[in-house]
Design brief:
By secondary structure, this protein is an alpha+beta fold. It contains 17 helices and twelve strands.
């Protein structure tokens, strides 16, 4: 059972005073006896609550406590606050009126900005008023910045949560301190996907970049291990608005949502996780750590601490417990590799150059089929392959492409592009032969319309 304690400092002070004069109030003392007892107590040293020193109290003070206690009991011994408490006594009436008017007109202006501007304009002396004094004034007047800012918001904030695990996943990226790679500072970007209902981290990985491809690889890792969610909720940045991610989610039956611009509160669960990760793990890893060091330490922190600690948003349950319970209650449809690869297969139109090469994902590939030179073809490749392994879709067939090796090609015998010799040796099915036609025309075996008109004259 918890120990019964005073509810606040004022009650603690009242209890301290009652211990000094309470024994006198319960005795029947004459006026002279009371005065004598109070003089004796005034010579004793006491340690007031939350004080580091002992002190004595005057007879007049003890006498005032004595009569208050007899009239009103413990409540009468509570210390009385100042009547002007919270009114910023350092401010004059004119200054107080000016500061309140500024906050009414400019609700988003910070206290340092207001003071700095007034000092520059000469309307206030430098260091004449502290920022804490002005903040107390605004709190007492009901003009605190945070409530005012929230009041201006067009939306009413409500605490919400997905109905079950895998109904909604959040995905975001966190910027960390640079890591050292071969003596050079490289950026650190931590991508993570969080389940809304359980706060369970379904995937996390640290890389150097912040690209759509990095999020795709992390998303696929989560899909392979945990199946597909109903909805994935992403930031509004360009990294997460690519056509590949959009098309992949459509093919897998996943709804893709983006947060509204300039509304970080809408992604509060993800922001709260980043804060917890920084406070409990990331800040202790060190600035010079490699990507491997960062990843293994973050994964260890997730498995041994974050997933196993009771979460306030889960009413004391752990993320791992809620996630595991959902696996037992729900039948989860796992995705096979073929479904994932189909969802992330990209098809693009490319023109084959005269040297039988074409460009795919910034790389040069070549075809073995020379008859496609100069033609526009459809190239298909999966975003999961690194490097890409594209193929040409032509006439119901998949024609493989290979990276160009110019040195090797310099030593390779060129195959004939088409069988031109057979065109002269084999009889023509259509009778088309421009050389034979020219010879017959020159020898007169073919008469033109002009020759026939001259013969008729």
């Amino acid at each position: 059972m918890d120990t019964l304690k005073p509810k606040d400092h004022a009650e603690e002070v009242a209890l301290f005073r009652s211990e000094i004069v309470g024994q006198l109030a319960r005795r029947d003392l004459g006026h002279g006896e009371l005065r004598r007892e109070l003089r004796m107590i005034s010579k004793t040293r006491f340690r007031p609550p939350k004080s580091s020193r002992t002190r004595t109290f005057a007879v007049s003070t003890l006498e005032r406590w004595y009569y208050r206690y007899k009239r009103g009991g413990l409540a009468a011994l509570r210390p009385e606050g100042r009547s002007d408490q919270g009114h910023a006594q350092q401010l004059t009436a004119e200054q107080r009126e000016l500061l309140l008017a500024i906050r009414h007109e400019h609700r988003s202006a910070s206290v340092p900005l207001i003071l700095r501007t007034l000092v520059v304009e000469g309307r206030l002396e430098k260091d004449a008023i502290s920022a804490a004094t002005v903040r107390r004034l605004y709190v007492q007047a009901g003009l605190d910045r945070i409530p005012l800012r929230d009041a201006d918001s067009p939306k009413t904030r409500l605490r919400w949560q997905a109905e079950r695990p895998r109904a909604l996943w959040h995905a975001d990226v966190c910027h960390g301190a640079p890591v050292i790679v071969e003596g050079k500072k490289m950026p650190l970007r931590i991508h993570a996907i969080l389940d809304d209902a359980s706060r369970y981290i379904v995937a996390l990985f640290a890389v150097h970049q912040e690209r759509e491809l990095d999020m795709l690889h992390l998303f696929v890792r989560a899909l392979r291990r945990h199946g597909a969610p109903d909805v994935i909720y992403l930031d509004n940045g360009s990294t997460y608005r690519g056509n590949v991610l959009k098309l992949g989610c459509e093919r897998l039956g996943i709804t893709l949502l983006h947060a509204a611009p300039y509304d970080p509160e809408a992604r509060g669960k993800m922001e709260r996780f980043w804060r917890t990760m920084r406070e409990q793990s990331l800040r202790y890893i060190g600035k010079g750590a490699s990507l491997h060091d960062v990843n293994v330490r973050l994964w260890a922190w997730l498995d041994t601490h974050y997933h196993r600690v009771p979460h306030a948003g889960l009413l004391g349950r752990t993320p791992a417990g809620v996630w595991a319970a959902a696996d037992d209650d729900l039948h989860v449809d796992r995705l096979d590799e073929q479904q994932i690869r189909f969802a992330l297969t990209v098809r693009e139109r490319r023109r084959v150059r005269r040297d039988n090469t074409l460009s795919v994902a910034g790389l040069i590939f070549q075809l073995d089929q020379g008859f496609l030179a100069g033609r526009v073809v459809t190239v298909a490749y999966c975003m999961l392959d690194e490097p890409p392994a594209p193929v040409v879709e032509f006439d119901g067939k998949l024609l493989p492409l290979q990276l160009v090796d110019p040195v090797h090609n310099a030593k390779v015998k060129r195959p004939p592009r088409r069988t031109t010799d057979d065109a002269f040796t084999s009889p023509s099915k259509t009778g088309f032969n421009p050389a034979e036609t020219a010879l017959r025309l020159a020898t007169g075996r073919i008469r033109t319309d002009k020759d026939q008109k001259e013969d008729g004259r």
